[in-house]
Amino acid sequence: MQRYRYFITPPFYYRFTTKLVRHILAEYNIYYTHVKPVDDLLLIGVKDKIIEQQNERRLLGNIFDRRHYYLFRRQVQYLSRRSNDIQE
Question: 1-25 pLDDT, tens per residue?
Fold first, then answer.
């Protein structure tokens, strides 16, 4: 199980989708090999110990909790609505 050697497990609100989680990780410049929800935790696999330590510093508090879910969802809805207005 090579890809599970180094991982971060922040608390996780169940309504986050994998797509939204990957979008948030990209926004925070968090490098990962895979993402997997496990019960009430989010398993974020990384390549090595150095990247694991960098990502732990970049993940501020509980960004995958209920409050942040609604903030991120509202932000994504705003951006998609705005991009639709620009295309028209």
Answer: 455 689 898 999 999 999 889 989 9
Q: Are the beta carbons of 41 and 11 closer than 8 angstroms?
A: yes
- Count CA atoms within 13 Å of residue 48 on its CB side: 1
Please give the C-alpha separations between residue 37 and each of 27, 42, 68, 83, 85, in angstroms, as whole numbers: 19, 4, 16, 30, 34
Q: How far apart are CA 61 and CA 13, in angstroms?
A: 13
Residue 86 has a pLDDT of 64
**37: burial class by Cβ within 10 Å (0-12, 13-18, 19+)?**
middle
Specify the number of domains making up the chain.
1
